[in-house]
Amino acid sequence: MIDLYFAPTPNGWKAAIMLEETGLAYRPILMRLSKGDQFAPAFLDISPNAKMPAIVDHAPDAAWGDAPVTVFESGAILLYLADRTGQFAPLPGDLRARKELMEWLFWQVGNQGPMAGQLSHFRNYAPEDERDYGFKRYLGEYDRNLGVLENRLEDRPYILGEYSIADMMAFPWAFIAKPLGAALADFPRVADWRARIKARPAVQRAIDLHKSEQNKGQHRVDNNSVLFNQSASSLRPRPKDETS
Predict the structure, then answer these.
(1) The whole model's pTM is what?
(2) Environment class of residue 241 by beta-carbon count within 10 Å: exposed (0-12), middle (13-18) or buried (19+)?
């Protein structure tokens, strides 16, 4: 059994999609981010960055020994699960294919993901009078990354040719283009790629996981200091009665 620490966000969907696609048994543990579950000492032991998703594999392969394996950061989680199952990634011995996979995973975590996350912040959660510059700045970066993906998909249906964890990483932030104030009209290959992935039953199950708990603007900078404006002090242990 694998514990999945999860909230219904694009980053949370990445790990949930992979678990659904592989068919591994898992238990979703809802993280109430607006209430600060991510800062509980027990969770910081699993994810020192105080971010979800994170997993605990209670029955790893024998090579890992007897102790449970904890993994934080979505890219690391998907790589771990791909290696564990032999699914949705080139085999470690296929060096050229593995190199391409790493390039696109690092592109997602270093470019598409952060730019889309900042766009989401300024579109949906920042104070009204401070949104314009940030929104324009990150919308431009978001569109630039859509262009990178559009070019990559010119001669292939998926990022590596076959459906892989590279697609699972990049899909969620393209899936929510409209709520981000962006459009896919100028990126027809991305739109087709998005539709192919969205139609997969495993992807639909992952997106529906705890769907009612999505933050659709109800928790914003001006009304939730737990979720926004975090600092190093956020990582300090909270009093015992606040971590339950």
Answers:
(1) 0.90
(2) exposed
